[in-house]
Amino acid sequence: MAPTPSTRPELRGMLQLLKPITWFPPMWAFACGAVSSGTNPLDTPLLLLAGIILAGPMVCGASQVVNDWFDREVDAINEPYRPIPSGRVPGSWGLYLAIIWTVLSLILASQLGATVFWAALLGIGLAWAYSAPPFRFKQNGWYGNLAVGISYEGLAWITGAAVMLGTLPDKEILALALLYSLGAHGIMTLNDFKALEGDLRMGVRSLPAQLGPERAAKVACLVMGAPQVFVIALLYDWGQPAYAALIAALLAAQFAAMRRLLTDPRALAPWYNGTGVTLYVLGMMASAIAIRGLA
């Protein structure tokens, strides 16, 4: 007789749904926002820690659970070993965790000021709209990836500055947050290569599924590179030529990595995520440092 399936989730499976490995991008963007505010984040360590927890484990964690719950049919094809399709988080426990984590995120955000709360609310809203019907933005890579870029990079950056300043940050900070959000669209496109087979079978219109791997990789490279050109121009205009030159050098190194990526996009997308994307996020911090005196 086959064993009766468990109706209780594994604790380890619940933690895996939160995907700690995905917390780095919004936590890094939050740190960039905190640095760009012109304050010393280390002067208020508890505030800094609360903001980092909000950006990573809470808001990002909630978005990951939401995505896994509404993606469970696709994951059963692409990654059947994940907690929900494997049965380690059975029944509706994934949905319950998504709702609970969303509420806890908003409670924490409300303690960090009105600007932070509204930014977190927008980020959470985009996370649900990305994965859940009727919007399900992830069905189309053009606007789905934009929603993720805004949530993971732009709103996290703005939140970092707002936590330190106690108000909406200045236009220079908002401009950088927007530009790096747009660039993150390309990073998300590269992440979609790993799910190409399941996306094609389930009708998910990611850019690799719509355009094919070669054209999608070219679009990703263009979308990652163009906003950084604008960042360089803005920093030069704002009287920061040394930092503009530094980011130009980082971008040149990315272009070299992109040339290799385009030789075999599907196989080399993980490699580029470890090389070119690292250069991209280093540029984020360099630009944040550059505008400290302007905030």
Task: Describe this entry's structure for a reader.
The protein is an all-alpha fold and 295 residues long. 76% of the residues lie in helices and 0% in strands. The chain contains 14 helices and no strands. It is globular. The model has no long low-confidence stretch (mean pLDDT 92).
Q: Name the helicity range.
A: over 70%
Using the CA coordinates, give the radius of gyration: 19 Å
Note the beta-strand portion: under 5%
Envelope shape: globular
**Average pLDDT over all residues:** 92
Task: Please report the total strand number as a whole number.
Answer: 0
- Please mark out the parts with pLDDT under 50 across 5 or more consecutive residues, or reply none: none
Distance separating the two termini: 68 Å
State the secondary-structure class: mainly alpha
Let me know the largest β-sheet: none
Short description:
The protein is mostly helical and 295 residues long. It has helices at residues 11-18, 24-36, 45-70, 72-78, 83-86, 93-110, 114-131, 141-165, 171-191, 196-202, 207-211, 213-237, 241-261, 265-290.
